[in-house]
Each structure stands twice: as structure tokens, then as C-alpha cells.
Structure of DUF4817 domain-containing protein:
Amino acid sequence: MLSAPDKALLVKLFYMNEESATIALRKFRVQKNVKSGKGPLTPAGLSKLVKRFEETGKLEDRARAGRPCLKEARAPCIAVEMEAIASKAASGTSSAREAAKRLDLPPSSVHNILRRILQLYPNCNQTFTSRYVHLNFWTSGSPHLNLWTDEAHLSLHGDVNNHNCRIWTTSNPRDYTQKPLHSPKVTAWCGFTGSFIIGPFFFETQCPVNGWITETVNTQRYLTLLRETVVPCLIQRGQISNVTFMQDGATSHTANLVKAFLIQTFGEDRIISRHCRYPWPPRSPDLTPADFWLWGYLKSRVYLSGPSSLSELKDAIRREASSIHPDMLHSAVAGFVTRLECLLPCGGGHVEHILV
């Protein structure tokens, strides 16, 4: 709820801005650094406040008859429960749904009380909190021994599903890129540490009539790749007992069968993945070396030769991946550590303009 000084400021801004509730609210939010929302911080709410002030000369709410509002009565309990949940979470986060379950209340009611009475807002940065919770784990040992893995679709027309592509301008450039609706593509998997790279391996099947056909990545195909290709490569290099396996939170990566195989192969302490002891934070392509460096670099090299078929495209990807110097791998992993360190002062937000 608004305090008496805040109500007085709102009424003052209302009269100072030609009795415009919208302008008054906008200036109030700027001065108080308050997010927009429902309740008293709406034009209708302010108009009601001003009307009451003009009629009574007071800013306080009229005394209510009958029993107190249930929402106001439940607010202290919900606040205490949210703090209790946050104190037990490693990342300090809390869950409105968990609080509703514990208090046997509808989730919608808890959400409304958090927003309208307790004036709390879901912080978007809590998604990124885990990005530096495990900073010590990712950097105290040797991040250069992490096996950074990822898949990407690369098409004949130069497109790649690089999630880290952004256009930074003062206004929307309204640029459009023409490309075929169904561009032929390959799905490549790569993994690399600070000293070596394995792959690329392709998700495909051989057809007697059409040759090799690109397949989607599902649980069974991903598990087959790990069991029959990736792990044997690590064993051949003598690195199976050294590397820590990292993967993002794709559904095929976090299936129970895949998780069981990874734990059996690497152990629980050498896996960075969703639903594991050390979870990889979601929606964080700016932290993944494969996203912020590998796929962009391969794209810049592969398409120089102008491949005209999927076979030529795969050959170019293999050729360019095998020619990557260990110094470049080392630099990419060092860039990951730099990005983690930059997350601390910016509260886990986005990292901009870091080159590796």
C-alpha cells in the first residue's frame, strides 16, 4: 500500500500537471523508481484518491466496516513463508506456487497478494541468479577441462541457429533477410575444452534412395551419440576421467536415460546440466562458449568456400573444426571466465561487448 507521503506526492503531481493522472503517475514512477502495475498506481486509482482528498481533505482510506480483508490478513503469513523458502534455496530464490502449496491457498491469490499488497514483483534477473551461484565451482578448478557441448543447425544458405545474434542500435533497423522457407540443413554437434575439440558429429540417417537425411535431435539419438561416439573419443584421448561434461537444458539432454548415462560415465560431480548437482542456467547463450564463439566462427569460415550441397557443407564444417588451433580454444574458455566475473557487479544480467 502507498504511504501517506507517497499519496501526498501523487496528489501534488496531479495538480502540477494539468490534472492529468497519466502524467502524474509517470513522473511519480520516475522519482520513486517504481514499476508500473495495478492497484493504486493506475489512472483510475489516482483519480479516486484525488476525489477522496477533495471531498474529505484527507488522504487516508475510509474506515471499513465488517471483517478485515482476507488478502490483507494473509499477507504477513505469505511474506514469512516466502522468506523461509528463499532462506533454504541455494540461489536465494522463492516460489509463489510453493508458498501457495504450503499455505493451502490458490496460487492466483498468493500472486495477487504479493503484487498488490506486499508490492513485490518477480525479478527477471532471478533466472540468471544461478549464473554466478556456482562461480567458484566453474572457476576454482580448471574451466579449461570442461567439455563444452552444443548442437546447431547450419543450412546451405548461411544460416545458423546462433541464439546470441543481436542487433544493437538506437532504433529498430527493420532489416529483412530473404531465405527459402525450407532451407537444406545439417544438425552438427561439437564439444571442446581449452585444449582440444571433438566433432563435429551429425544427426543423420542414410536412406538408400536420397542418401544422408538430417534428423531431429531426440533423446534416443542424443544418447546414441554420447554412448557410441562422444565417450569413445574421450576414452581414446585418455580424457574420460578428467573432463567435466557441460550441456544446456534441451529436453533431449535432460531426459532420465541421458542423465543416468552421464552420471554413470562422469559421476555426479563432473556434470554441468539442468536437473543435476551443478545446473546450467537457462537462457544464457552469452555464457556458452559454443554460442558466443564456436558457431559464429565456423559460420564465418565454412561459407567462404560456397558449399553447394549438404555433403560439401559437412566437409567444410569438418575441415574448419579440425583446423581450430588450441590457442583459440583456450581463449574462448578464458572468455567464459571473464563473462562470469562480469556477472557479479551487474547482478547476473546480460554481458555485452566482450570479445574473445
